[in-house]
Amino acid sequence: MKFSLRILIPVLMLIVIGCTPQTPNEENDESEIFVEESYVNEVEELAESAKIKEAMEFIRNMDEETVQNQIAITEIPAPPFQEEVRAERYAEMMQEYGLDQVEIDEEGNVIGKRPGTEGEQTIVISAHLDTVFPERTNVEVEVRNDTLFAPGITDDARGLSVLLALINTLETLDIQSADNIWFMGTVGEEGLGDLRGVKHLFETEGDKIDAFISIDGSRASRIVNKALGSHRYRVTFEGPGGHSWGAFGTANPAHAMGRAITYFEDNASQFVKTGPKTSYNIGRIGGGTSVNSIPFENWMEIDMRSESPDALQQIDGIMQDAIQKALIEANSIKTQGPDLTVDIDMIGNRPSGEIPADVPFVQRALAVSKYFGQVPELTRSSTDANVSISMGIPSMTIGGGGNSGSSHSLDEWWYNEDGYKGVQRAFIILMAETGLAE
Ligand SMILES: [Zn+2]
């Protein structure tokens, strides 16, 4: 038993480390997607207009420059909560491409505003500045054959460089939109960043924003109109601790946590059997001093996700109940010393929701996919668009073009397979929504 576990555990670890899913949060809507004929016609008419045709040609011609920007951005490290250097350079790049009103807000987001001729509505188009990689990660881009390798080369340096291409196209060709466009590099999209950039934006300026597009990742055919919500907690049981023999009978936080996990899983596993897809995971546990000490502290990190805000709230409640029940029981078992306490710290809160497929904003984007000969694709994911989707503001996340893989790993790669088409598609989606000025 001892022997087999020793072999098994490293093997299991290798398997777990070795497979990094390319789009871990994503799930495709398999059903046939309906696109109304009127939007197909509208988009076709727009795309065939002289101005947009000129823009398509321009984007194609600047392809190499877009890739060079992607490389330059990748090579400026932007670890979680340390996006400042990249943000400053990104603000400069926006200005170099012709935006005058560029600022960095209190949260660290870069915002470049381009007023529309009518200016009654405002659409935000964004990409995220942060990466998942810690400080001192080597972010130098390596070109092997025709593929670019570097942590963050796609996620989201591709999105950031696509935005610059859009700005350059609008400015150089002097294309005026009817609505205002805010170009944004956001902070804190990944992990514990917990969407802090877009949360700040919608808290402070939400009433001015009518639509939101995030460009994230590469796959150009995808449209994320559904937000996968999540709650994340770090739960810590605390007690006085003591000698395992000498202080025996003192309340034990590890035992309490074991109970909490059992009660949580017993009820949660029943709960997720029906209703909207919901998941739960205790990803890390820790604490304790030594095998012969009653721990003074044990902790666990929990991630729960659901398509439905209601179900997310409910599974959250199941977790809270399990912890309280475990705490009460553990304290009733102890024969000496003070009670255990528990600290439930929310470390992540991403709202869920959905923008229906028949909303004009989504219909136009689907029509653009059709125009490019793609099979329209609607997906659910956890992205910057979560916040505005949950508020009911027409929002989506789209890919920036090219082909990519191994995101969130040191082997992340991007290959320029018709990458410019991703830019063209983003451009038409943007213009279809904002409208060309007459
Ligand atoms: Zn991303």
Record the SSE blueprint.
Elements: H1 2-18, E1 27-28, H2 37-47, H3 50-61, H4 63-74, H5 84-96, E2 101-104, E3 110-114, E4 122-128, E5 142-144, E6 147-149, H6 157-172, E7 180-186, H7 196-205, E8 211-215, E9 222-227, E10 229-238, E11 242-243, H8 253-271, E12 278-287, E13 293-294, E14 297-306, H9 309-333, E15 341-350, E16 353-354, H10 360-371, E17 377-381, H11 385-390, E18 395-398, E19 403-405, E20 413-415, H12 419-434
Parallel strand pairs: 4-7, 4-8, 8-18, 9-17
Antiparallel strand pairs: 1-17, 2-3, 3-7, 5-6, 6-20, 9-16, 9-18, 10-14, 10-15, 11-13, 12-14, 19-20
Written overview of the protein:
The protein is α+β, with helices and mostly antiparallel strands and 438 residues long. It has two domains: 23-228 and 352-434, Zn peptidases (Aminopeptidase, 3-Layer(aba) Sandwich), CATH 3.40.630.10; 229-350, Alpha-Beta Plaits (2-Layer Sandwich). The chain contains twelve helices and 20 strands. The strands form four sheets. Strands 1, 2, 3, 4, 7, 8, 9, 16, 17 and 18 form a ten-stranded mixed beta sheet that branches.
Mean pLDDT: 92
Continuous helix count: 12
- Biggest sheet architecture: 10 strands, mixed
User: Which CATH architecture of the largest domain?
Assistant: 3-Layer(aba) Sandwich
Please tally the β strands and state the result: 20
Fourth-level CATH superfamily of the largest domain: Zn peptidases
Radius of gyration: 25 Å
**Total individual domains:** 2
Task: Please tag this protein with its features.
2 domains; 10-stranded mixed β-sheet; 12 helices; elongated; alpha+beta; 4-stranded antiparallel β-sheet; single chain; Aminopeptidase; 438 residues; Alpha-Beta Plaits; disordered N terminus; binds zinc ion
